[in-house]
Specification:
The chain is of the alpha+beta class and 186 residues long. It has three helices and nine strands. Strand 4 and strand 5 form a beta hairpin.
Length: 186
């Protein structure tokens, strides 16, 4: 009998549905030529701010109250998606991702969320924050990955108006379920 795992959680900037659909259309146009094992479901597009791992609902509720308070004076802002990049080996990338123009407010929000996470005992990712939207995972081509797909050749923008707390369920598609929403000031 398979043991039920405790869900993992993360905080992320939510991507508006119309932008999710545009990105997915661009990905569908190149999927056949770029053999990644997993192309991300469009409803799973997001910009991770902090990954928590497992957590009790009581702790999450407390954290959410603090985050709501800490974000009360942060206004919505425009994010610009421009180009694609990879993480991992250049020839066999682990992740294909959409680059996000470095916006001051995005880094401010990520810092606020990380401070709350640390306050409640969650370890912070020590790597530099690289805001991105994961598009595909695990290159499986017979040949090496040699060039980026023409996915985001024309920059795309959207208004970042909210972030969410997401629960991970690797057994379903989409894999991420938003369980709390935090609106930014309009």
């Amino acid at each position: 009998m398979m043991e039920k795992r405790n869900p993992h959680y993360f905080y992320a900037i939510s991507i508006p549905r119309n932008i999710q659909l545009i990105i997915k259309q661009k990905c569908l146009a190149v999927e056949a030529d770029y053999p990644f094992k997993d192309w991300v479901h469009e409803c799973d597009y997001h910009i991770t701010l902090a990954f928590l791992g497992g957590a009790s609902l009581e702790v999450l509720d407390e954290m959410n109250r603090v985050i709501v308070n800490d974000l009360k004076n942060i206004s919505s802002f425009t994010l610009y998606l421009e180009g694609v990049q990879t993480f991992g080996l250049k020839e066999r990338p682990r992740i294909l991702w959409c680059d996000i123009h470095k916006e001051k407010q995005l880094h401010e929000i990520q810092s606020i969320v990380n401070q709350v996470c640390e306050k409640y005992g969650f370890s912070r990712d020590r790597r530099n924050f690289t805001p991105h939207i994961t598009l595909a995972k695990k290159w499986q081509g017979e040949n090496q990955f040699t060039h980026f797909p023409p996915i985001m050749e024309t920059p795309l923008s959207f208004e970042a108006t909210e972030l969410g707390l997401y629960e991970v369920n690797t057994e379903s598609k989409p894999k991420y379920k938003r369980i709390a929403t935090f609106s930014l000031k309009s």
